[in-house]
């Protein structure tokens, strides 16, 4: 269905875009609906092209007489993301409107989307332009895996890994988002250790549930369970770093049932919360957003806890402690009901 911005002529209605949506990369989904907008309302792109738009290419498009595919525009700013050559061609033809598809994503995603859109079609980006773009994206999207950035820029994962090491100002991440949208820790041993601890705490939990909670693949979780049942360390020797061994079957860290490495647990919760914030089934409805806000409160840790504790007046201590315990009980029951529902559907 075509979205209408201004009155369309019958001729324009015959040229609506019916192409398939672009392949989805984390945060880079473009709507399928098209709209006709006034050319004068559009702003220039943040282009990955080092020399800017190629005027000769735009002139060739204008002279071709062919119908130009819709360009991509960020709805909130009306800035062109992909299609500056088509926009110039339309202007050279004397047209006052152009067909667009809207992108409703974040500002920081616009450049990455522009790169992905220009890697293969139209006038493809050169190797130099793709490399420069990749250096910028490893800084702005450090949470993406090398494979994801490679797909966006048309470079292989090894090249992205090298650029990540050599580029200044790249944030250090504890985990990355893969092509499947899942968040995985960079330290493979960490995910295995957490999976082993969860198995020790909840031996009857479904394997898929353990894998999702630990941020590892189902195959990795299965291997961890196999190793634990055979009395081996959950982490193969090649992945181990200096630190405590992972639990074997029946073993419980620190000699106490249900006790896990606090740092690993905190990391795991941060990763889960980041992933939940991006889930459209939660962030796109009022109840889901409320749940995320409540969970963010529960994720307070470290210095934030100290600040909260120090802010409680002595005369309020008893009342707040009682309410906090009540909240804990409510969340425990909430978690139990969720797990029972999951097990019933497994």
Describe this structure in words.
- The longest helix is centred in the C-terminal third of the chain and has 29 residues, at 317-345.
- The protein contains 15 helices and 6 strands.
- With 346 residues, it is α+β, with helices and mostly antiparallel strands.
- Helices cover 50% and strands 8% of the residues.
- Strand 2 (71-74) and strand 3 (79-82) form a beta hairpin.
- The chain has 4 domains: 10-118, Conserved hypothetical protein from pyrococcus furiosus pfu- 392566-001, ParB domain, CATH 3.90.1530; 127-181; 184-312, no CATH class; 313-346.
- It has helices spanning 10-13, 55-64, 84-92, 107-118, 127-140, 146-153, 157-166, 188-201, 207-214, 218-229, 262-277, 280-283, 286-298, 303-311, 317-345, and strands at 34-38, 71-74, 79-82, 97-103, 175-177, 183-185.
